[in-house]
Amino acid sequence: MADSAVPVISTGLQNIYITESKICRVDGENGKLYYRGYSIDTIARNSNYEEVAYLLIYGNLPKRQELEAFRQQLKNEREIPDSIVKLIKESANKADPMDVLRTAVSYLSIYDNETKDQSQESNIRKSIRLISKISSIVAAIGRIRDGFDYVHPDKSLGHTENFLYMLKGRRPAKEELVPVEMMYILQAEHSSNASTFSTIVTGSTLSDIYSAVTSGIATLKGPLHGGADEEALRMMYAIGKPENTEKYIEEALAGKQKIMGFGHRVYKAYDPRARIIKDYLLTLQNHASEEVRNLTKIALIAEKMMIDKLGKSHGIWPNVDFFAGPVYRSADIKLEMFTPMFAASRIAGWSAHMLEYWKDNKLIRPLEYYTGQLDLQYIPIDKR
Ligand SMILES: CC(C)(COP(=O)(O)OP(=O)(O)OC[C@H]1O[C@@H](n2cnc3c(N)ncnc32)[C@H](O)[C@@H]1OP(=O)(O)O)[C@@H](O)C(=O)NCCC(=O)NCCS
Question: Does the annotation count 353 as an active-site position?
């Protein structure tokens, strides 16, 4: 390319492939998603979060003993340092939970004497540590925000069951566990989305996994990415009653507002995760709380309107975040905890990508096309 030629600029890195990967396939045209070759429907129907995390990290489904050993490793890593509990106590009620989580995960690195070890074996151990401890940190943030004391983990419980136990201070009921387990599975991985990309960018400098994951958490926070489920629920609360939905959506679209929980950079069809979450929500209706029933009615009206207006014509369909809010509310999870819980699940995917990328690491360093001036004359400060 001659110096003067304008390069093709792909804003937002749209349609740019950065690497080969065997972890996840998002088929955006047909609305399909695969973890390590298994369709998300199959995974959601048959698997559990620990098995999904194993699959993502190691690349294959575990045999029974392998899964048991993996579960045990996760259990052994659940406790978090006292100073992190203290940090959470000092900040949980003043700061956004994602800011507390980001700081706590960054802080974790100084308690790990393997932080600088870049061997694959060490990075697998640290990934398991992070998968385990991030759930504990998120539970502690929620618990302490609610004005209660830190609850130590219980080794007799499974991963998400222990998360809910640490969050609620009691063993969860089945109605609380099932939706949370489902959300953990569905949010565990999604190829090179923004937070995974920023995790890889940081890792590609051969920085450590704690730094890489801290970048991922920072990126997940934004409302165009992980924060969309909270924003979608806020919108449903703002709508208030099902009969207000049509007017609200009409006005929002007329005002060129984006409706959170719709649209996706890759999916130009119905997000398969959204379908699974919606189907689950519909099974709840007879025994759901009034709040959840009301939210569901609003969500269904909004969904129909959006599909009629922007679905086939513009490829804007519900994404994973749209029905998540009502489902989380069915487990009595507070809105501010949705994105931290997303991180507690996505850590499996972030780790898997880092482990894969580091096998053949290449520093990520894109170009930008400079359009400013050159060779300006420097004028001393008192003559400007
Ligand atoms: C996810 C998202 C950022 C992907 O967007 P993108 O590929 O960068 O595309 P853009 O934001 O440029 O949107 C393209 C067009 O569709 C419209 N659009 C996209 N998402 C929309 C939404 N949720 N509601 C209304 N219009 C939407 C945009 O306004 C834009 O219209 P225009 O061409 O007339 O300006 C975008 O769909 C969005 O902001 N959605 C809401 C946030 C969300 O749910 N994020 C979670 C994703 S899992």
Answer: no
Whole-number Å distance, alpha carbon 310 to ligand 1 midpoint, is 11
Tell me which H or E stretch contains 73.
helix 64-76
CA distance 58 to 355: 9
| The pair of three-digit structure tokens given for residue 329, joined into one six-digit string | 């509310």
108-161 per-position pLDDT tens digit: 999 999 999 999 999 999 999 999 999 999 999 999 999 999 999 999 999 999
Round to whole Å and give the CA distance between 56 and 218: 22
Identify the CATH number of the domain defined by range 228-330: 1.10.230.10
Three-class DSSP category at 24: strand
Quickly tell me which residue has 């991985």 as its tokens. Answer: 189
The best mutation among 316, 317, 338 to test binding of ligand 1, ranked by most ligand atoms within 8 Å of the C-beta, falls on 316
pTM: 0.95
Q: What is the pLDDT of residue 322?
A: 96
pLDDT digits (tens, 9 = 90+) for 189-220: 999 999 999 999 999 999 999 999 999 999 99
Ligand 1 within 6 A of CB of 323: no
Contact indicator for 189, 346 with CB cutoff of 8 Å = yes
Q: Is the CB–ligand 1 distance for residue 341 below 6 Å?
A: no
The structural architecture, per CATH, of the domain 25-222+340-358 is Orthogonal Bundle (1.10)
- Map out the domains of the chain as residue ranges: 25-222+340-358, 228-330
Distance separating alpha carbons of residues 335 and 328, to the nearest angstrom: 8
Please indicate whether residue 321 is annotated as part of the active site: yes
Strands 32-35, 24-27: pairing kind: antiparallel
Amino acid at 309: K
Question: Measuring CA to CA, which residue among 241, 197, 187 is closest to residue 219?
Answer: 197
Instruction: Lay out the sheet containing 38-39: strands in order across.
Output: 24-27, 32-35, 38-39
* DSSP characters over 187-208: TS--SS-HHHHHHHHHHTTT--
Mark the ranges of the chain whose per-residue pLDDT is less than 50: none
- Would you state the structure tokens that stand for residue 240, as one six-digit string? 């208030």
- Cα angle 170-171-174, degrees, rounded to a multiple of 5: 135
